[in-house]
C-alpha cells in the first residue's frame, strides 16, 4: 500500500510505519545512540525531559525482555528483533510535584526516535502487548517511573519470516482523513 497525504508533507511521515518483520542485521551501538540522541532533543514542558530508556541488545538482555512480552507478540519478537527500547517517564518534577506532562513529553521522545530511526533506514514498532508490572519487577524500575511502551528496533526484514496470519498484515496501514480528526465541541 502506498500512503497518500491530503496535504503536502515530508515523505518521512508517509514512509514510517510499524513492521513486525526484522532482518538479522544487528544495530550498532553508534546507530542506537544516534537514535536515542534524537529523542534527547525532543521538546518537553519546562525542559524537564522526563523520558528514560532501558535498552536490550545482548542475548541475555533480549531474553530478560521476553519475560514480559505478551505471547501474541512473542510470536514475532522472539529471535527476530535485534534491539528493544523500554520507554519510561519520570512522573515527578524536580521539586517533587507531579508532572502532568510526563507522558506527553515522552511521546514526543518516542516520535523523535522513530523518525530518526526511519531516517537511518531502520524501523520501529511500539508494543502495547507486554506486562508493565512484570517489566517493573524484572528490571527493578522504581515507582516514580511510569512504564509507557516497549519499542522494537532494527532493520526491516522479509515478511515470510513471520507466521502466515501476520504476513497478511505486514504493510503500512492508512489513516483516517484529516477532516475527521479536526473537531469542534461547541
Automatic annotation (TrEMBL):
Region (Disordered): 167-186
Pfam families in the cross-refs: Nitroreductase
GO molecular function: oxidoreductase activity
Domain named Nitroreductase: residues: 15-71, 83-155
Sections of the chain in a coiled coil: none
Keywords: Oxidoreductase
Bias (Basic and acidic residues): 167-178
InterPro entries: Nitroreductase, Nitroreductase-like
Annotated family: Belongs to the nitroreductase family.
This protein's name: Nitroreductase family protein
Amino acid at each position: 500500500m502506498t500512503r497518500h497525504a491530503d496535504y503536502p508533507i515530508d515523505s518521512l511521515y508517509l514512509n514510517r510505519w510499524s513492521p513486525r518483520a526484522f532482518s538479522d542485521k544487528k544495530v550498532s551501538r553508534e546507530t542506537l545512540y544516534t537514535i536515542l540522541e534524537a529523542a534527547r532533543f525532543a521538546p518537553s514542558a519546562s525542559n524537564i525531559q522526563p523520558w528514560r530508556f532501558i535498552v536490550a541488545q545482548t542475548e541475555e538482555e533480549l531474553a530478560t525482555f521476553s519475560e514480559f512480552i505478551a505471547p501474541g507478540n512473542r510470536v514475532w519478537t522472539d529471535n527476530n528483533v535485534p534491539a528493544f527500547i523500554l520507554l519510561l517517564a519520570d512522573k515527578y518534577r524536580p521539586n517533587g510535584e507531579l508532572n502532568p506532562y510526563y507522558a506527553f513529553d515522552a511521546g514526543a521522545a518516542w516520535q523523535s526516535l522513530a523518525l530518526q530511526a526511519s531516517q537511518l533506514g531502520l524501523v520501529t514498532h511500539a508494543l502495547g502487548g507486554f506486562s508493565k508490572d512484570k517489566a517493573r519487577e524484572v528490571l527493578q524500575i522504581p515507582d516514580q517511573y511510569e512504564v509507557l511502551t516497549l519499542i522494537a528496533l532494527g532493520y526491516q526484514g522479509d515478511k515470510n519470516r513471520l507466521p502466515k496470519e501476520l504476513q497478511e498484515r505486514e504493510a503500512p496501514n492508512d489513516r483516517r482523513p484529516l477532516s475527521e480528526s479536526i473537531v469542534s465541541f461547541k
